[in-house]
Design a protein that fits this description.
Layout (H helix, E strand, L loop, with lengths): L6 E6 L3 E6 L3 E7 L2 E4 L5 E4 L1 H6 L7 E4 L2 E2 L2 E2 L2 H16 L7 E6 L5 H13 L4 E6 H8 L10 E6 L4 E7 L2 E8 L3 H16 L1 E2 L2 H11 L10 E8 L5 E7 H25 L2 H10 L1 E4 L8 H9 L3 E3 L6 H10 L2 H10 L1
Parallel strand pairs: 1-9, 9-10, 11-17, 17-18
Antiparallel strand pairs: 1-2, 2-3, 4-5, 4-6, 7-8, 11-12, 12-13, 14-15, 15-16
């Protein structure tokens, strides 16, 4: 049993949910996938178990990702997923936990409301929201309270959030629905067009992780995968090379680079000078795509750094922000 005031920070990602508990650090890291029985509406599996079922379920079972492009696409399933994770983290709690949840920087009021409602329904006593780039900056160990510009590019599964942060807030920010999932989508399209075969999302992700790149590699790597031949309808093995991955993935990579470019164009000159001195920080699982940092550095002419423990950056930042909850509460009361 836990005592009063359990505080949880949650990075509610399109691909992964990471939970941080005050005083304990990161306690949970699971894929945001839920398997539901369509006939009874019963949740059969959540997280890793459910991810294994993706693309492999019979008709009455659906394995879905309740979050698409950084926002809730299936409200009920998200609520149940959150409930499952909260119970896993807290066990039996006497008092409901307070929760700090990350959201993309450009979400609408309706989307914010959906996150707050889902978390409250799942058992949170009070829900706070924090913008992903700000949480990522805190998690990357940047002091965001000073009056100087820091640029964060947070590439997740569903969205890429770009923000210039100064004095604890975003000065210029942009959020685009191009991130890890989009790379997978382009790989699926490429294999279909070039090799006349169909592969699933999971195979595309394996290709991205193992041989994917967006900047020419010194040595061309190869990987064998199995897909369904479109002409015969039978499974066949295809050998793919990283040079082909470059061809498949460069388009979404350039969309991210262009978005960074347009945020830099809107940045006040003083802050832009700070950024060219300090460089651009990249966080999130999506920035691990081979060569993305080199591509961005080449196109902007600014030094690009990948934060330590990039995947957990946002969750760590959310966790650190939990320490200021009491201050937040007090401030809200005064206002």
């Amino acid at each position: 049993m836990f005592g009063f005031g359990q505080d949880i920070g949650i990075d509610l990602g399109t691909a992964t949910v990471i939970a941080y508990v005050k005083g304990k650090g990161i306690v949970l890291r699971e894929p945001s996938v839920v398997a539901v029985d369509k006939t009874s509406g019963e949740v059969l599996a959540v997280g890793k178990e459910a991810r294994r079922m993706l693309g492999r379920t019979p008709g009455n079972i659906v394995a879905t990702r309740p979050l698409r492009e950084g926002v809730i696409s299936d409200y009920t399933v998200t609520e149940r997923m959150l409930k499952y994770f909260i119970n896993k983290v807290c066990g039996k709690f006497i008092f409901s936990p307070r929760m700090m949840i990350c959201i993309p920087s450009q979400v609408t009021e309706v989307e914010k409301r959906a996150v707050i409602d889902a978390a409250s329904q799942a058992g949170a006593r009070k829900v706070y929201l924090i913008e992903e780039p700000i949480a990522a900056a805190i998690g990357a160990g940047i002091d965001i309270s000073k009056p100087c510009g820091n640029m964060i590019v947070d590439i997740g599964g569903g969205t890429t959030d770009i923000a210039v942060i100064s004095l604890g807030g975003s000065v210029v920010s942009s959020s685009l629905k191009v991130a890890g999932d989009k790379f997978d989508e382009y790989i699926v399209k490429y294999v279909k067009k070039k090799h006349n075969a169909i592969i699933g999302e999971r195979t595309a992700e394996d290709l991205k992780v193992n041989i994917g790149c967006v900047y020419p590699k010194i040595q061309d790597m190869e990987m064998d995968i199995r897909g369904r031949d479109l002409t015969t309808g039978l499974p066949r093995t295809i050998t793919l090379y990283s040079s082909e991955m470059l061809e498949a993935m460069i388009e979404p990579a350039m969309m991210i680079v262009d978005a960074v470019h347009s945020v830099l164009e809107k940045t006040p000159p003083e802050l832009a000078a700070d950024i060219s001195d300090k460089g651009i920080y990249m966080t999130g699982g999506g920035c691990l795509v081979d060569g993305l940092d080199k591509l961005l550095q080449e196109k902007t002419g600014i030094n690009v750094m990948i934060a330590e423990d990039t995947v957990s950056c946002v969750a760590l930042g959310t966790g650190k922000a939990l320490d200021n909850l009491d201050a937040l509460d007090g401030k809200k009361r005064r206002n």
